[in-house]
Amino acid sequence: MTIETTISSLADLADISYIDDSGQLPEQLQGKIGVYAIFDRNKHLQFVGYSRDIYLSLRQHLVRQPQHCYWVKVQTIERPNRTILENIENAWITENGSVPSGNGDDKEKWTQPIDVKTLMTPEERVNYENPVYDEMTQMKILKNVARRVEAEILAMLEMRGLQAQIRFNPKLKDNGLLDLK
Questions:
Q1: Which of 45, 90, 147, 179 has the highest count of CB atoms within 10 angstroms of its CB?
Q2: Which pLDDT tens digit goes with each residue over 31-45?
Q3: 115, 177 Cβ separation under 8 angstroms
């Protein structure tokens, strides 16, 4: 038994605002399985991905790459089928004419928790790398860097009008990582 799914052209899909007029993410995508394409403010394709819950994935991408998440296009399917999802993802990338940076060199920035060590100020780095400090002190420094980066992300999203609740996983901060709970 084969399952046929028509692949919609990216050009034919409607643009959905990442953050709507009431400051919410596209709630109609909660629990939806499918492929999504994320565009920046100028509607240049940044990332194509697929998920069992598009809404949760969009939330993660928004905190990881807030400066690149302004528009989204979506094709949903009824049941999870990796082959179908990958076929749609590949078709959209091909239609784009080039691999978006989020699917190429910057893939980790889109798909992995934020590593705050890469975002340390020179002063934070000197403190963190100080050979006098023990592991507990380094963990406190990492946690403070994570809090600073988290505050910067939340401030940026607030400036964009986001009203949706965003909570980072507090347990990851000790390891210098930021990801949603």
A1: 45
A2: 999 999 999 999 999
A3: yes
Name 33's bridge partners: 77
* Cβ pair 176, 117 in contact under 8 A: yes
Query: 93-140: per-residue pLDDT in tens?
Result: 999 999 999 999 999 999 999 999 999 999 999 999 988 888 899 999
Q: How far is CA 61 from CA 4, 10, 46, 150, 176, in A?
A: 29, 19, 11, 14, 18
Strand bridging mode 16-17 / 71-77: antiparallel
C-alpha pair distances (Å), 124 with each of 67, 83, 116, 119, 129: 24, 45, 11, 9, 9
Give the domains, in start order, of the chain with CATH numbers.
Answer: 10-111 (3.40.1440), 114-178 (no CATH)
In angstroms, the CA 99 to CA 8 distance is: 18
